Fold this sequence. Notes:
This protein is an alpha+beta fold. It has one domain. Helices cover 16% and strands 29% of the residues. It contains one helix and three strands. The protein has one helix at 14-22; strands at 8-11, 27-32, 42-47. The chain has a three-stranded antiparallel β-sheet, covered by helices on one side. The longest helix is centred in the N-terminal third of the chain and has 9 residues, at 14-22. The protein is globular. The protein starts with 7 loop residues before the first strand and ends in a 9-residue tail after the last strand. The relative contact order is 0.32.
Amino acid sequence: MENKERKTIIIFTASKARELLKAGFQIIDIKPDHDDPTKKRSVFVFKYDYRINDFI
């Protein structure tokens, strides 16, 4: 049986990403937001932790 456990969560705002970092959550990557027509925004990829839901 395939493991479908969530491994990452995407955060779309820098302020929320900063809050999660200060709370001790692990950031994995920062990528360009492909939906942003200005190509200036980024998305933040965090390692999924069930406790992260309390912060978002």
